[in-house]
Design a protein that fits this description.
Strand 2, helix 5 and strand 3 form a beta-alpha-beta unit. The strands form 2 sheets. Strands 1-7-6-5-4-2-3 form a 7-stranded mixed β-sheet, with helices on both faces. Strands 8-9-12-11-10 form a 5-stranded mixed β-sheet. The protein is built from 17 helices and 12 strands. The chain is of the alpha/beta class. Bound molecules: pyridoxal-5'-phosphate. The site of pyridoxal-5'-phosphate (PLP) has 17 residues, from helix 4 and helix 5.
Length: about 425
Amino acid sequence: MNNKHIDTQCLHAGYTPKNGDPRVVPIYQSTTYVYDSTEAVGAVFDDPTLSLIYSRFANPTVMAVEAKIAEMEGGIAAMCTSSGQAASMLSILNLCSCGDSFISTAQIYGGTINLFAFTLKKLGIECIFVDNDASEDELHAAFKPNTKAVFGETLANPALTVLDIEKFARVAHAHNVPLIVDSTFATPALCRPIDFGADIIVHSTSKYMDGHALQVGGVIVDSGKFDWKSGDFPGLTEPDESYHGIIYTETYGKLAYILKARMQLMRDFGVYPAAHSAFLLNLGLETLALRMRQYCGNALMVAEYFEKSDKIESVNYPGLKNNKYYELAQKYLKGASGVISITVKGGRESAVRFMDALELASNEVHVADIRTCVLHPASATHRQLTDEQLIAAGINPGMVRFSVGLEHADDILADIEQALAKV
Ligand SMILES: *Cc1c(COP(=O)(O)O)cnc(C)c1O
């Protein structure tokens, strides 16, 4: 299945029914699993990869989706989480302890900035922020002896900066640390960061992967390529006291990172998704490649329309030729995805007036939905940030994040036209 096209993987990867099995992956609505003897249960505790213990660690419905996403990303294995936030959190906690640091671009999702700059800081983990466009020298200079990872977003929400994945991977690897990429806005249909050197991928599956605004979820994908013994990762290369002294790199080799995340962190934090959520996510994934093509096509038309409007001060969409990230988008992405950010002339007030006048597009705290939706980051997702942090995250107070859906482009454009007329 590994060399099949993504359209095919979307439908077939992760679940291959045998003779007489259900065509669709069933919802295994069960917290637990039955064994013939105490000895059999003991054996599963010795090696949880043998079978299932409890649905806080693994569940067959969720595992089918994990296998599908791993294959789509070109990774070795994946672990779903109950939210994108949980995926980002575990991706870092799997490497960093109190006293460690990691590097992240500043142009990331607002919720991730909160997690990195405030909550992880309280746990004694420092996030060193760098610019998405930092030079190779600037990136090298940001490293400290205790730096354990580098983090960035393929196509950042909502800044829409494009990460130079090869550059970030090269610098991270020169310091023997992995590159973790949040690829939520790109999805594997538009970019497979592992092909460009990224080591760990995280997603909020609540966005395009689900697409229908049905479930909140996340996933961590392990490329299996990073050599943990080359760096300073005692959590992976030394005995885990909480797991009868297991050494993840020795017992699980290339699967060390993703199995530690499951056996230790998932066990302790308990942020595994419900089987029903995974089932819904799987339905979304089945049409991901098809939908992404349509999002990209619609969004380009909408971005070109905004560009011509005299009510709009600026349009940020990396699919436009004059965009700062056009070249990087051409290199890394098969399309610039469905999110456009615009600044309406007249700042915050005009932006709000435009949004409130939209009829087809809904005002909601979401993005990457099948339906067109809009959001004002400065008064919603990024409300907690100071103006300085807003600017650093690439957000103008008058900016509107326009998430183009799959309605007919003519209807989306007509809605924009009537709303702009009221600004
Ligand atoms: C939404 C989002 C998250 C957080 O995901 P949730 O599923 O809402 O917890 C993380 N990263 C990016 C890029 C996002 O868009």
